[in-house]
Design brief:
The structure is a single chain. By secondary structure, the protein is of the alpha/beta class. The chain has two domains: 84 residues, Rossmann fold; 131 residues, Rossmann fold (3-Layer(aba) Sandwich), CATH 3.40.50.720. The longest helix is centred in the N-terminal third of the chain and has 21 residues.
Length: 292
């Protein structure tokens, strides 16, 4: 068996095309252009790259984008003032604070401050709390886990009743992904650094979401035949054949796993493109919620 590739680039482009069409229709009806405000603190190169990519996506989809690049030594009070002003700004529909923040800043306080109607990253404790409670719906779901579930559904993977394993328990991917799977009636196991015999747990998984941040951690002989694998990992692996001296790989050994699995996402080109696509979708929804 060779696994069917789940093409994140293609599916993300379909989502972006749908959002662009809805934005065009909204603006043609005389309504405001959905606008995303990104807040970047400090000089992290990777964070700056992500913020630029998000701004570019907004532009391509006919949406508005504003960026606030703040000094690394900004005080908690000054950062909170920026968030408060964006909450009050009716031309801004979504607020994205690029994480991680410098160590001296209280991340939780910042995320709590974002208006729930503008929390397009889905990290507000209120949105996560709603996600965790049966019978309640969050206004927004965190973009990467949202993308993971969307990829499974688009591939035709049956989630209801499946044994699902999530590797990693981060607030950004692991825990929200587990909650989403539970909401879709899967039976979910979350593995982490203290889990005993992770390989044995993974071998029972009909669905595996790997977000543990370890290069090619999951081996092919861990994979249940026919399983669906969503690989969230992005790791650099030395490769002398590449000009950069490295290549990007996931948390799953792709070459081994694809010979056993039923479905698998590549790295790159799997989950990555979905994150920004879902952010664009959330920003459009935020505009619709605030200005129907």
């Amino acid at each position: 068996m060779t696994a069917e590739l789940i093409d994140g680039k293609l599916i993300a482009q379909q989502v972006r095309d749908e959002v662009a069409a809805k934005v065009t229709k909204r603006v043609a009806a005389g309504k405001s252009k959905p606008t995303l405000a990104a807040v970047l603190v400090g000089e992290r190169v990777d964070s700056a790259t992500y913020v630029r990519a998000k701004g570019k996506a907004c532009e391509e989809l006919g949406m508005g984008s504003v960026s606030h690049h703040l000094p690394a030594d900004i005080s908690q009070l000054e950062l909170e003032k920026v968030i408060t002003s964006l909450n009050a700004d009716k031309t801004v529909h979504g607020i994205l604070v690029q994480l991680p923040l410098p160590d001296h800043l209280n991340e939780e306080r910042v995320l709590q401050l974002i208006s729930i109607e503008k929390d397009v990253d889905g990290f507000s404790p209120l949105n996560i709390g709603r996600l965790a409670q049966k019978g309640r719906e969050p206004l927004f779901v965190p973009c990467t886990p949202y993308g993971c579930i969307y990829l499974l559904e688009k591939a035709g993977v049956k989630i209801e009743g499946a044994n699902a394993v999530v590797l990693g328990r981060s607030n950004i991917v692991g825990m929200p992904a587990a909650l989403l799977l539970i909401g879709k009636n899967a039976t979910v196991t979350v593995c982490h650094s203290r889990t005993k015999d992770i390989a044995a747990v993974v071998r029972e998984a009909d669905i595996l979401i790997a977000a543990i941040g370890k290069t090619e951690f999951v081996r092919g002989d861990w994979v249940k035949p026919g399983a669906a694998i969503i690989d969230v990992g992005i790791n650099s692996k030395p490769d002398a054949t590449k000009k950069s001296g490295y290549r990007l790989v996931g948390d799953v050994n792709f070459d081994e796993a694809r010979e056993v699995a039923g479905f698998i996402t590549p790295v790159p080109g799997g989950v990555g493109p979905m994150t920004i696509a879902m952010l664009m979708n959330n920003t459009y929804r935020a505009a619709e919620i605030q200005e129907p």
